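hey so u asked for the seq, here:
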Amino acid sequence: MAIAVASRDATAGARLRIVVTELAPPARVMRMHGGTIVALRELDAPLDARALAESVRARVSAAVGDPDLSVGFGGPKKGATGAHVAMLQAEQAVAIGRALNGGGGVTAFDDLGPYCFVLGRPEQDIRDFAERILGPLAEERHADLVKTLDAYLRLHGSLNAVARDLFLHRNTVRQRLRRISKLTGADLNDADARLVLQLALLGRRALERLTG
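ran it, structure tokens below
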């Protein structure tokens, strides 16, 4: 399994590396950037991953004097490729968990709910997917259309609900939806097309939280 330990102090990485290595054997620190380090621990028997992560958070937090220290974990996964995925999951879990719930907590990758469907892969892959699905709609100048699409998907395609939510006239909503369909090439009456668009928007939100 992989454990990511993150401090809001971007200069804390080196200190965290030493403390994690000392307090969480046989974990090996694999990478470090800013105030986040990622450690990998090989398992020779099943264990309670959450309990281990919570123990690491409590001990490292006390050692470095940072009550807002956050921890994320991913895996366990098998093999070298699995280890890479677990580390990516742990990094994303700690970043998204902290963005959603604030500091001082422990987040498993599986705790991320629908975000799990777009995470677990490099950020560039997520960005490429969102841009491919949204097309020109991904451009900043279409922010109002993105907001309309998000409301349309969130409110199960109800024009009345979207109009009320965004304080728009129904005809304005219809016009925007036609523009959205033209820009993305998606048939908004098709359930599969709506699902793909929803995943693309979810990917954009995930990237905002990962880089925020």
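The first strand starts at residue 2 and ends at 6. The chain is about 55% helix and 10% strand.
lmk if thats what u needed
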